[in-house]
Design a protein that fits this description.
Radius of gyration: 18 Å
Number of domains: 1
CATH architecture: Alpha-Beta Barrel
CATH class: Alpha Beta
Strand content: 15-25%
Helix content: 25-40%
Strand order of the largest sheet: 1-2-3-4-7-8-9-10
Distance between the termini: 8 Å
Number of helices: 10
Number of strands: 10
Structural class: alpha/beta
Largest sheet: 8 strands, parallel, barrel
Oligomer: single chain
Length: 288
């Protein structure tokens, strides 16, 4: 199992210099990756008056300050972005970091706030169609090949975006979704990994092993080639005590988890404050 740190792109972490400090601390403490949220307003009622940072600018600061740490978003709401612009942002970060990007993708949310506030459709079926079509376009853009495309939501005529990504054939794509809603997990089965949230387990709460097994059984049943490596990213907050952390994580690893994403609870404000996040980072990742 590998271990990542998860932070929002608002509050203290709207500042790219603070995110760079987090990244340096995480790398020094032995964590494997840093993941940043991708929101523009999140929940407008709860976030009103808070600053936000652009996740790709925040990750750029993290890349410049580190040499080993993997970097990415969990997750980018692809239908909210233009695929060609997103392809450029990821490829630029890939070049800057030497190929350390992991791309997390999904619909994002809350849909009413993140889409409806800007006059975008809030129809989840349409957004899902845009997500699937855009993911296919991103893969072609990252390959550095000529793209001609006439689809339901996007049109491209004679475009080649260079440079191609450092990682070949592309950065790994992990798909997020809420279990037990099935469609996102059929999508996840087509890509390189799954980063689920679970109804009944809030952000930072460790999911039930039975739910993890059910989710993975469904994903694996829809994978075309089960011989290829596949990442399973679970998250929550673990105690600093190594023995207690092992007791919590060992059953999840046995169920198939390959990454543990450390996330503070959203019940207070620690999760978007630098000091408590830094304290947890400096304790180091849990071990099995």
């Amino acid at each position: 199992m590998r271990y990542s740190v998860n932070i929002p792109n608002f509050g203290d972490f709207a500042d790219a210099r603070t995110v760079a400090r987090v990244a340096v601390a995480a790398e020094q403490a032995g964590w494997d990756a840093l993941f940043v949220w991708d929101h523009v307003v999140h929940d407008k009622q709860d976030r009103r008056g808070q600053p936000f940072g652009d996740p790709w600018m925040l990750l750029t600061a993290a890349a410049l300050a580190t040499s080993r740490l993997r970097l990415g978003t969990l997750v980018s709401p692809v239908p909210r972005r233009r695929p060609e612009q997103l392809a450029r942002q990821v490829a630029t970060l890939e070049a800057l970091s030497g190929g350390r990007v992991i791309f997390g993708a999904g619909l994002g949310g809350p849909i009413a706030d993140e889409y409806g506030s800007f006059g975008e459709t809030t129809d989840p079926i349409v957004l899902a169609e845009r997500l699937d079509e855009a993911l296919d376009l991103l893969v072609r853009y990252w390959a550095g090949e000529r793209v001609d495309h006439i689809g339901k939501h996007y049109r491209v005529e004679d475009v080649t975006l260079l440079p191609a990504t450092v990682q070949r054939p592309r950065p790994p794509i992990w798909i997020g979704g809420w279990w037990p809603r099935r469609p996102p997990f059929r999508r996840a089965a087509r890509w390189d990994g799954v980063a689920p949230l679970f109804v009944g387990a809030g952000h930072g709460e460790i999911p039930a092993v039975e739910d993890v097994r059910d989710m993975l059984a469904y994903v694996h049943a829809h994978r075309a080639d089960r011989s290829e490596p596949y990442e399973v990213v679970l998250g929550g907050v673990t105690p600093g005590d190594p023995d207690r952390a092992r007791q919590l994580l060992a059953p999840l690893a046995d169920a198939g988890a390959t990454w543990w994403d450390e996330r503070l609870l959203m019940s207070g404000d620690d999760y978007y404050r630098f000091a408590p996040v830094l304290r947890r980072i400096e304790q180091g990742p849990p071990t099995l």
